[in-house]
Amino acid sequence: MTVRIGLIGAGGMGRAHLARIQDDLSGGEIVAVADINPDAARSAAEPYGAKAYDSSDELINDPDVDAVLIATFGKVHAPDVIKAIEAGKYVLCEKPLATTAEDCIAIMDAEQRAGKRLVTVGFMRRFDAAYNEMKEVLDSGEHGQVLMVHNRHRNPSVPENYTSRMAIDDTAIHEFDTMRWLLGEEIVKVRVDRPKPTTHRFGHLIDPIVVVAYTESGVRIDDEVNVNLQWAYSIECELVLETAAVRLGDQERIHIRDSHGNRNAMCQSHIDRFQAAFNREVQEWINAVAEDRHTGSTAWDGYAATCVVDAAVKSHEDGGSPLVDVELIDKPGFYA
Ligand code: ISE
User: Residue 117 belongs to a domain with what CATH number?
Assistant: First the structure.
C-alpha cells in the first residue's frame, strides 16, 4: 500500500520533506500540498503532479489524503493537528507541536477522544544513529548512572527575524526532547544564563545563552545555544556516567590535508547534519502509518517539551533568574 500524504506548509522544511518522500524514501507519496500562499503550494505540488490547496482544511478533508505532514510555523500547528485527528488521520507535525501548553493539552484531549495515538512530533534526533548508540551505552548500565549531560547547539548564523525566544522554543527545544528521551525522565527545573554576547549577532538578539536544567532524579543538563558561530553547524553532546564519558562523534564528513593542516569538513545546516535522521524518521512514520500503528514521539512528548520551553522563557525574560519549576499536568494513562 502506498501511503497518500498531504503536506501542509510549502516553505523550506516542507519542501525538504517533499523531496525526500518523492525521491528518496519508499511506500509514501505526497498527493497534495497546501499553503496559505497559493503560488508556493502550486510551485511545490506541480513538479510531482500533486494537488495544490490554499487551505489546510480542504487538504485534511480530501478523501485521497491518508495521512498529514505539517511543516508550517509552530504557532499555527494546533488547529490543523486537531482537525487531522478529528478526520481520523495520522499526523507527523514538525516541532514544536504547539507554542502553548494549552494548545498541546487540546491536542492530547482530541487524541484521547479519538481513542488512538495519531500524532507524532518531528523530533528527528531520536532517529540519529549517534544519539541511539549513546542511548544503548547508557541503557546497558555498564558504566553506572548518568550524572550530567553537556550539550552544545551551535548554528553558523541566524536570520534577523530570529528572536531571543526562538533560541529556546526553536533551537534548545531539540535538547529538551532529546534529553527526556535519552534519560527517560522529565525535566523539572530550568534556568537560562547569559554569557558575554557575541559581536556577530543582530543587536536585538541575546546570544549565546546557556540553559541549565535538572531532571526528576537530579541529572544536571547544560546546553550552550550559540547561533552566530560563523564557522559551522555543530551539535555536541557529552554524557557523564559514573565510570565513563560518552560523546557524540565529530560529525565529520571529509578530511582535508593541506598547507593549513589536517582538518574535517563541518556541516553547515541542520538539513545537512541530520539528513539521515530525517530520512529515517519519515520512512519509519510512513511504514507505521501503512501498518496502522503509532511511531516516534507522542503528543505528550510535544507537550512536555513545550512546558520546559515555557519555564526557560520565564527565566530568560526575568533576565536569567534562578531555577524555574517546569509545570506539567498529570500524565494521562493513554500516554503511559
Ligand atoms: C531550526 O528550526 C532547527 O530545527 C535546527 O535544528 C536548529 O539548529 C536551529 O537553531 C533552528 O532554528
Answer: 3.40.50.720
Is the CB of residue 170 below 6 angstroms from any atom belonging to ligand 1?
A: yes
Three-class secondary structure of residue 49 per DSSP: coil
Residue spans of beta strands (DSSP E) within 49-160: 51-53, 67-70, 90-94, 119-122, 146-154
The residue range of the domain holding 155 is 126-269+305-335
Does the predicted model carry a pTM greater than 0.90? yes
Q: State pLDDT tens for residues 110-163.
A: 999 999 999 999 999 999 999 999 999 999 999 999 999 999 999 999 999 999
With a 6 Å cutoff on the Cβ, whether 152 touches ligand 1 is no
Sheet strands (E) in 180-251: 187-193, 209-215, 220-226, 234-241, 245-247
**Predicted confidence (pLDDT) per residue in 41-66, tens digit:** 999 999 999 999 999 999 999 999 99
Report d(CA 131, CA 179) in Å as an integer: 10
Same domain, 23 and 65: yes
Pocket test for ligand 1, best of 77, 94, 155 (most atoms within 8 A of CB): 155
What separation in Å is there between the alpha carbon of 243 and the centre of ligand 1?
32
Q: Into how many domains does the chain fold?
A: 2
Is the CB of 174 inside a 6 Å radius of any atom of ligand 1? yes
